[in-house]
């Protein structure tokens, strides 16, 4: 990394004469001593951001970045709760709510002029005319213990041989919506693209899975850990980013993508409306898209980068769909989130009635 | 006691202790994921978890918070106990009821109520919010412990001092203070522990910067894939054993007063 | 004398005032505000509407999900209280008899209180899972083949709740039993009563006040728990605390969350009242009966 000295930092360097060594090399003096709060996810992705991306960014800008972990829905709730007096500057959310946040006026358009890294972004990963970008794409599917024969189709999972052996994702998490689409597809025999509009009439199919479900989990990491321990055989549906890092470390758990198809699990970043320290927030979002962050992030968390032109290592390419041509070849399905957002509260209550009542 | 009862008691004691032994055993497993029975032996998860910056930060938050809660509840609780025991206060029973009621109203609800209260008041100082919440739940322990030692002490000593011409402050410093010192020590220790262990109040008020240890533990269970969470649990269990030993053996504080 | 008493109560009032003021501001006011909020606001299609309303309560009692969770919360609290009581008697008798054994029992019973509730629940989850320590022991001792998993059932929540809150019933019971003069038991034994009769006729009735305190503590703590059901219930058997948390932090429906929280307060206070009043009446009747 080259260090450019502007006039102010140069002056400081001359005056401070090494006493203020850690600050002297700051090239972004305007950010000195300022603080932003961002909402991030857990897991390897969050770990890498906390351990590598944030400390480097803080050192370079002389600022503080506070990272608060949360799932997408909880993060949106935090945005709503603090809308009149924003506390967060940048929020990481799943693609599902990027449009919703824009509509509710919780986020604002990214200033393309201040974000040079947008240039390498695949156009399809800039959302809602510039109200969010993808950060990484994982695959949505089934995770299973490597000691069992995984199901070839989703329909198989309704068989009673899976009784009490399935972990199901909680309606608080985005992949639960994938599961509802799967249930509709299994019931109707139609592909995901059509089945997603039949979810309302498919809750009887959802209820039929009940005896096979061991528990409804909130944390994909905890669930894949339990599957690795052999407490259950399979879990559905989860983003590969919560599973592959452990597969890679030698834990007996991996992903499978049944014949009906795989989902695109896209993690995004949005800029909060009236964000505190907006310019710093924009700089951070830009940093997240730079190749110097995207390549190691992809190789650490095993997620596909949303930007072009990266040279990922062999191991990573075995886990992710990259580059874009590979994503297209796999036919990853992205649901109609606008329709789903309108239905989400109702579907959540119906899922709760089946599993929690 | 019949042998049957004694046998039943021993079985129950085993069941009380056994669960705590499970994380201890799993914490040394030399596998990248958790498993029972443990395979191999390693202490590396202990080093890993102790080196974790988030563990250190959360621990520091919890220590600061518990200290603030203990000091705050002593400042409010000591005079309150003296007033209630040694003076004719109007509405004494109602006051006692109010002081003890944070133990009865579900903590989870008090925490939520405080979150709403502070957000309506426009307060955004998280540490202050946490400290106020923790003082509310620690106060009953301080008042009860100090009251107990006042009730056990001989009030005639105070009267005697007053008759001998000592003013109130001198009487307090020379007589009352010595009488209630054991109550203050145990009240302070209980307050520290209650705050250090609190989950239901902190869960509403904490944020990324002020994230007490119990909340971190709950997140860590969902996040740590390897046995380092078992190692952290083991350390916490050892800490509890040390505290009990210190309280019972050195300070003569009856741990059971926690629940009584 | 009059003026002395007045001065006395004045200084007394000054001494208690800071604590009272603090609790009025940071405890009573927030809680009343929360209860009030449940009847002056409601969420409609994601937008907060203000005005006197009972919609939140109508919803809590008409949608089967919330109603069932309320019932489950009461049931779980009662079961935990009863199971704890049954386990607590032998322990309390051992403690009341004192000696080294009594001291050891006290320490073992109280130790878990100092271990954080998250750790204790986590320990149980590792013990009760399908490949966990309990099933491992059952399989290797040849007691059961392929035993079912207890984790993520209501049983797991019940077991852990009893474990976590047991000291809160053992200690009041031990205090009550310790207060019974040993001569009473001896007299009954000399009169020819066997151990069971001594327990039923002497220890049980005289321990009722301690029992009532213990039952209401265990009930209240179990019913208001968040961590234990969260870690051990697998989302199949949420208690009301989980729902309050979900309404406020995930769904952002504060008024409904406030309504559920108010219901929890009412539930806990009324059960406390029932237990303690009931115990009082029972004791009065038994002592009156003994007089005949």
TrEMBL record, chain A:
Keyword match Signal: yes
GO cellular component: outer membrane-bounded periplasmic space
Superkingdom assignment: Bacteria
SUPFAM superfamilies cross-referenced by the UniProt entry: Periplasmic binding protein-like II (SSF53850)
Pfam families the UniProt entry points to: SBP_bac_8 (PF13416)
InterPro entries: SBP, TAT_signal
Record's keyword annotation contains Signal: yes
Gene3D superfamilies, A to Z: Periplasmic binding protein-like II (3.40.190.10)
Keywords: Periplasm, Signal
GO molecular function, one term: thiamine binding
GO biological process: thiamine transport
Entry protein name: Extracellular solute-binding protein
Organism: Arsenicitalea aurantiaca
Lineage: Bacteria, Pseudomonadati, Pseudomonadota, Alphaproteobacteria, Hyphomicrobiales
TrEMBL record, chain B:
Compartment(s) of residence: Cell inner membrane; Cell membrane
SUPFAM superfamilies the UniProt entry points to: MetI-like
Alphabetic keyword roster: Cell inner membrane, Cell membrane, Membrane, Transmembrane, Transmembrane helix, Transport
Pfam families listed in its UniProt record: BPD_transp_1 (PF00528)
Gene3D superfamilies assigned: MetI-like
Keyword Membrane attributed: yes
Gene Ontology cellular component terms for the protein in this record: plasma membrane
GO biological process, one term: transmembrane transport
TM helices/strands, residue ranges: 59-82, 94-119, 125-143, 183-206, 229-251
Family matches, as InterPro entries: MetI-like, MetI-like_sf
Domain ABC transmembrane type-1 per the UniProt entry, residue ranges: 59-247
Highest taxon of the lineage: Bacteria
Topology in the lipid bilayer: Multi-pass membrane protein
Entry keyword annotation includes Transmembrane: yes
Family: Belongs to the binding-protein-dependent transport system permease family.
PANTHER family, per database record: INNER MEMBRANE ABC TRANSPORTER PERMEASE PROTEIN YDCV
UniProt-recorded name of the protein: ABC transporter permease
Upper lineage: Bacteria, Pseudomonadati, Pseudomonadota, Alphaproteobacteria, Hyphomicrobiales
Automatic annotation (TrEMBL), chain C:
An example Gene Ontology CC term for this record: plasma membrane
Location of the ABC transmembrane type-1 domain: 70-275
Cellular compartments annotated: Cell membrane
Transmembrane intervals: 65-88, 100-119, 155-181, 202-227, 256-276
Protein name per its UniProtKB record: ABC transporter permease
Keyword hit for Transmembrane: yes
A Gene Ontology biological process term: transmembrane transport
Gene3D superfamilies: MetI-like
Main location: membrane
Signal sequence range: none
CDD domains in UniProt: TM_PBP2 (cd06261)
Family from the record: Belongs to the binding-protein-dependent transport system permease family. CysTW subfamily.
Keywords attached to this entry: Cell membrane, Membrane, Transmembrane, Transmembrane helix, Transport
One Pfam entry name: BPD_transp_1
Keyword Membrane tagged: yes
Topology of this chain in the membrane: Multi-pass membrane protein
